[in-house]
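If I may wish for something, please walk me through the protein I am sending here so I can picture the backbone:
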Amino acid sequence: MAENTIDLARRAEFRPIAAGTRIGHVHLKVSDLERSLAFYVGILGFSVTQRHGDQAAFISAGGYHHHIGLNTWESRNGDAPPPGATGLFHLAILYPSRADLAEALHRLMTAGIPLDGASDHGVSEALYLSDPDRNGVELYWDRPAEEWPRTAEGSLLMFTRRLDLHTLLKERSAA
């Protein structure tokens, strides 16, 4: 076992993390701040809440202090990590409704941003893509918990099925 690693068997000594705990924000190293702002603000629709020249910006939805931090402190003009390297797999952006996810899909299509995938997971529907620095991005909405698929014993039964994008886009026009 690696030094400073808590043995999983000892985990029982600790209480579970508080139920209200959540991921508050993600901070990304980017190679070009303006290009990243064009993607996250210009295409996805986030708002800049604070900016530090050409080195960093903080962006949010709905007036929160920041959901995403973007910085070039260690990465200006840098290369994306090569495939097979450790690091961020993707950041996930949770939309409040299916119609809002449909609007995000429309924005991506209008901007010519290709999707890497689109899945129905039973508990959620998700769009997968890459930002300009090849960071993975998941845009998704959660179905209400009472609609989540479950086994006969009541355990969660997530799956991955193809998401019908045409049907999703119809949700946008219905909203």
